[in-house]
């Protein structure tokens, strides 16, 4: 099919705009188009290319989606070996390096370029007449793997060079890596899919680049920074490393903004210290810095020995991973009742900090890594995050070691531990009694939508716990006026007020009381539903899962949580004590006795209601037998439109459905029990 000229021009224009945008985004770090506009232009180009496949060019930005899987990577022989770097760990090793350089060159002081040493994967990129034709991993330095398809999916790597003055043959070298945020997101996705997580961003980058299916690579958040030139043919490059990198940037390659020209060892050490303080805040991981003699003629004079240049050295930072012994596994109970296994370690210095504990996250993670007491483990500490056990060395495992299993009872209060299917976290169910959950439970209990004890907020709760005045919820009803007045910052008047607020809270509703208990999965509307269905606390406390599941809107997870909560003897004791201390509510909030005046009617709630929350409205409608749905369809009987109602209201009007406002809703709810 002949392609109309105007279409050809349109496609060329789109390619150029998209490539330019990539350049501003990845190389200059100064985006010029909103992402939505970029996506729109990309779709436009994809549509044209689908219509006229001959329009497709090798440098089209649509080509970054990956290609058909390979059966193996082809071998690439590097035209010039890819060198590695010698390392310096201490300042005196750097001194020795500088001394050797100065002596060989017979000069007093050397100008160095200082750069970041990224923790990724070295690659070489070959461009012929401006087009990316081959990308290879370093391999053993002489031979690497052909990863061209994979590299083409990395948006930071230009498929075509910018401008016109680039050499006809240019090989650029640099690091492919995964930013920290992308690494964390990828691991979250892997966990959600039940797949293997990566130990660190470097492994994630290597695993992603070395995929035979480049469509997988395309979905991984890889990026690139260039730091050297390999082969150049048909053109002269500038005489210093710094100028060469500036030139690479003009041709479309990202270079590090932290690159700096420094003078002598002193300049190098200042750079090292400066980057070390920035290390945690950088968006990617680095394992040190690199110093390179800036002048190319000096580099040539120096040459290299056994695959490492004499003109460059890596100055390494303290390692973020170390080997140690796992002495024991403790289980901590968090303020929400979550159980976290924690590894107790033989003290080890990791990145300059002594580490004695590391998180093991949860049972699934322990099983996946097969971590056992007595194991030799690799511990990793990066930034402010809690150190973690990356993996064990099974070859060093002592005989007779046993797999670790989380306890069935809370190590703090002895209540049952449960785990919801598909959830990684195991939890203590002794919410009312468990000292670990005391603060959270108390705060929730006293909150406005629960028992509404005015003045009993976070600060007061903290004081009560710090002064050891409350052990469990019920104790707040036994505190004397003197005890309240004795709290720091509280006088007689505030104590009066507090006593009144506490007294007032004793008269409540069953729905509020159930919500106040803080049972997992029981929010306000579920609490109301339970109160209405059972009318009586005793009945609810002895309800079975099957009975609970029969209630509309109560699923198996909530049913299990409710039953387990009331099965805990400690929780029952606290509830009994609260009632003995005078907490009461009107009997029979049950809607079973309420006329089902809205039975068979379907409602949709949209916009903001003033006098009640949407959850309130939903529960009250349901109490009258109505069904409340999220989307408007022909089956909808009423749409309740609050303030700022949007598309649902429009749809209701289009479909000719009855629309009522908040006043109209209140009229319908006349029969519903108030909360
Ligand atoms: N920043 C930087 N990292 N890095 C790694 N420069 C640099 N140079 C390297 C390596 C392996 O090798 C040179 C010999 C080109």
What does this protein structure show overall?
This protein has 675 residues and is α+β, with helices and mostly antiparallel strands. A hairpin with a 6-residue loop joins β19 and β20. 36% of the residues lie in helices and 20% in strands. The chain has 24 helices and 24 strands. α1 (5-27) runs antiparallel to α2 (35-51) and α16 crosses α17. Strands 14, 15, 16, 17, 18, 19 and 20 form a 7-stranded antiparallel β-sheet that branches. It folds into 5 domains: 5-64, Helix Hairpins (Orthogonal Bundle), CATH 1.10.287.610; 87-316, D-amino Acid Aminotransferase, Chain A, domain 1 (2-Layer Sandwich); 321-396, Nucleic acid-binding proteins (OB fold (Dihydrolipoamide Acetyltransferase, E2P)), CATH 2.40.50.140; 435-580, Orthogonal Bundle (DNA polymerase, domain 1); 594-668, BRCT domain (Rossmann fold). The model has no long low-confidence stretch (mean pLDDT 91).
């Amino acid at each position: 099919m002949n392609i109309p000229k105007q279409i050809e021009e349109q496609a060329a224009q789109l390619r150029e705009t998209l490539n330019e945008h990539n350049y501003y985004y990845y190389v200059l770090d100064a985006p010029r188009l909103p992402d939505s506009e970029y996506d729109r232009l990309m779709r436009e180009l994809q549509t044209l290319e689908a219509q006229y496949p001959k329009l497709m060019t090798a440098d089209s930005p649509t080509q970054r989606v990956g290609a058909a899987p390979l059966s193996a990577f082809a071998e690439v022989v590097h035209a010039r070996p890819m060198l590695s770097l010698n390392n310096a760990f201490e300042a005196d090793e750097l001194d020795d390096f500088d001394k050797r350089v100065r002596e060989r060159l017979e000069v007093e002081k050397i100008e160095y370029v200082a750069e970041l040493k990224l923790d990724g994967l070295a690659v070489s990129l070959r461009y012929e007449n401006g087009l990316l034709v081959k990308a290879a991993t370093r391999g053993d330095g002489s031979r690497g793997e052909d990863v061209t398809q994979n590299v083409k999916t990395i948006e930071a790597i230009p498929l075509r060079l910018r401008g016109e003055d680039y050499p006809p043959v240019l090989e650029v070298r640099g690091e492919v890596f995964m930013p920290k945020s992308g690494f964390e997101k990828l691991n979250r996705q892997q966990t959600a899919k039940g797949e293997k997580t990566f130990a660190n961003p470097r492994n994630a980058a290597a695993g992603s680049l070395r995929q035979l299916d480049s469509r997988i690579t395309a979905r991984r958040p890889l990026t690139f920074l260039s730091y050297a030139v390999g082969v150049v043919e048909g053109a002269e490059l500038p005489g210093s490393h710094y100028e060469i990198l500036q030139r690479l940037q003009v041709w479309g390659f990202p270079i590090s903004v932290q690159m700096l020209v420094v003078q002598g060892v002193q300049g190098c050490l200042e750079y090292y210290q400066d980057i070390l303080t920035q290390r945690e805040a950088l968006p990617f991981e680095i394992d040190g810095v690199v110093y390179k003699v800036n002048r190319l003629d000096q580099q040539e004079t120096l040459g290299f020995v056994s695959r490492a240049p004499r003109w460059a050295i890596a100055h390494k930072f303290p390692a973020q991973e170390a080997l140690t012994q796992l002495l024991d596994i403790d289980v901590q109970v968090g303020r929400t009742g979550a159980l976290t296994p924690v590894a107790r370690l033989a003290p080890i210095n990791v990145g300059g900090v002594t580490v004695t504990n590391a998180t093991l996250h949860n049972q699934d993670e322990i099983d996946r890594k097969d971590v056992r007491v007595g194991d030799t483990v690799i511990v990793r500490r990066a930034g402010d995050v809690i150190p973690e056990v990356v993996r064990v060395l099974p070859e060093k495992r002592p005989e007779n070691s046993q797999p670790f299993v989380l306890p069935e009872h809370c190590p703090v209060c002895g209540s049952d531990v449960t785990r919801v299917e598909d959830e990684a976290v195991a939890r203590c169910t002794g919410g009312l009694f468990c000292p670990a959950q005391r603060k959270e439970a108390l705060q929730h209990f006293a909150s406005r939508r629960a028992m509404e004890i005015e003045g009993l907020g976070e600060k007061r709760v903290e004081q009560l716990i710090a002064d050891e005045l409350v052990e469990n919820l019920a104790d707040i009803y036994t505190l004397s006026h003197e005890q309240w007045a004795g709290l720091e910052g509280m006088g007689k008047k505030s104590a009066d007020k507090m006593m009144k607020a506490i007294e007032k809270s004793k008269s409540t509703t069953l729905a509020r009381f159930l919500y106040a208990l803080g049972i997992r999965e029981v929010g306000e509307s579920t609490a109301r539903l339970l109160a209405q269905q059972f009318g009586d606390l005793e009945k609810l406390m002895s309800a079975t899962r099957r009975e609970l599941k029969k209630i509309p809107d109560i699923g198996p997870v909530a049913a299990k949580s409710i039953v387990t909560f009331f099965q805990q003897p400690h929780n029952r004791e606290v509830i009994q004590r609260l009632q003995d201390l005078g907490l009461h509510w009107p009997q029979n909030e049950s809607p079973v006795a309420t006329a089902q005046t809205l039975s068979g009617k379907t409602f949709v709630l949209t916009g903001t209601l003033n006098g009640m929350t949407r959850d309130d409205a939903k529960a009250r409608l349901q109490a009258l037998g109505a069904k409340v749905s999220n989307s408007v369809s022909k089956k909808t009987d009423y749409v309740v439109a609050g303030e700022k109602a949007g598309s649902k209201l429009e749809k209701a009007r289009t479909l000719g459905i009855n629309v009522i406002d908040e006043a109209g809703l209140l009229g319908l709810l006349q029969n519903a029990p108030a909360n």
